[in-house]
Amino acid sequence: MTDHLTDFARSTAPADVVRRQYLASAAGDLDALRATLAPDVEWTEMAGFPLAGTYRTPEGVTANVMEQLGKAWDGWAAHDDTYVVDGENVVVLARYTAANKATGKAIAVRVAHHFVVRGGLIVRFEQFVDTAKVRDAMAP
To answer: CA 87, CA 76: separation in Å to the nearest integer?
Structure first.
């Protein structure tokens, strides 16, 4: 009998790779998160978002995005609600929840993420989010 969790951990199916990325992020396991990213990954945070820009390499993504979110926000979490899969494209409808450390203001905003997964690794990511709500939570 095959262990379902072992299958999931090794699966190269695009939705499984993306789900492992969210689980690693939620657990704060940056090594596991980096393991889902291709060496030449292009990770784009939306214009207007506090970390706007495109980051490359797994280390560049975690240092410039996840670690920075952890410094500025308490309990930052991306809740992956709905997956839409079309070949190597995975669109996830999700929510961000957190409280800004400087202001104490909480956010609960809808977000869409577009991933491209090839060979069992995320090669591209693009974020779509209501940046005004995030900035409002950061304003004194």
So the answer is: 30
Q: Which two tokens stand for residue 85?
A: 């899969």
107-121 pLDDT tens trace? 999 999 999 999 999
- The Cα–Cα gap between 7 and 67 comes to 29
pTM over 0.90: yes
> Please, what sign has the CA dihedral across residues 20, 112, 73, 54?
positive
**What is the CB neighbour count within 10 angstroms for residue 5?**
8
Which DSSP string corresponds to 38-95? EEEEEEEEPTTSTT-EEEESHHHHIIIIIHHHHHHEEEEEEEEEEEEEETTEEEEEEE
